Protein 1
Amino acid sequence: MTEIYNNKTAFLRMAMFPFHYLIAFLVLIFLIVIILMFKIEIYDTYPTKGIVSCQTNCVVTTYIPTSIKDFTIRVANEEVNFQIMEEEIKTDEENMISYNYLKINISGDFKDKEIIDLTFHYNKQRIITKLKERIFN
């Protein structure tokens, strides 16, 4: 066995690990990731809390930034049906922030005076578009 390692020509004739398979596999994975970046659309999210008040139906009161427009709402990672009952723009003059005061009629099994975690999903875009915005803006 030591004779093979001492002989340069025998060493050069030994089979090498097929790196071209590894490179082809990595290129394939890279192409799949690039294709998915152009196809999959994701949302920006805004997590907040809301106060539930139930009389005949449940109404959630919450505050969100005024920059959030066309949105969907998730409660406990489940998308819920909602209807905006009241929307009012308010300002915090001390911190110079404007926000929307929302009263939302929401479907679900909630208790009166319960505080729930809400996630607002807005600004649906492809992944590549979001990356371009983050890099160039």
Protein 2
Amino acid sequence: MNEHSIAESGDEFKEQVRTRFAFLTTEFGFEPALDESSAYSHRLTFRNLHSNQLVEVVNAFHGVDYGFEVNIHLASHSRLLDQRNMVYYQLKEDQDVEFAYLAEAVEKLRSVLQDEA
């Protein structure tokens, strides 16, 4: 996909993320997703106050951005790039319109969270 098609698929992308990442709420006690999207990215965050974790699911589509990422941050700290754990990424050129890459991202994130439990 290119940045234009990623930008246009924002509502569908966010719905797919809410559905596929619902396990964060049901299995790990995260709050429902908060939409923090901007002009150049679709961003949903899930916060768990008990474990002090913030999961950030972002698809950045500005011309110099790389694409899709799933990151874990400490919820009590700022979201600086050097203080994150990038769990999964998919370059925008390698993304598909069916969002199949989200399934792999979910499994990676679930595995990381289970290992931390």
Protein 3
Amino acid sequence: MVIFVNSRIERYKNRKKNKFKKFMALLVIINLLLIGIVIVDNSFSEFMGIKNKRVFYIDSKNEKYTATIFGKNYTVEKQLIDNLKDTIIKKAEDVYDSIRKVIK
């Protein structure tokens, strides 16, 4: 009787591949959902004769982002987005540095 035992590295690689496959499947499902919503919205708007009504729309004007999601308009200043992005990058770098210190 032969028993095959995977090494830890092989199991780690397999887990990593499975995580990536699940992540990609999730992205595909979300994209299909959004495409389906947009197609149904366009068909419904055309059927009802409605113009200028959008389910998803993002626009950038005058230092502000305007997003329309399910008929509601949301406005966010670009400066706020830039500050949030910088904060996330700094925190990610801090986490990366702390992990490197632990590994060494």
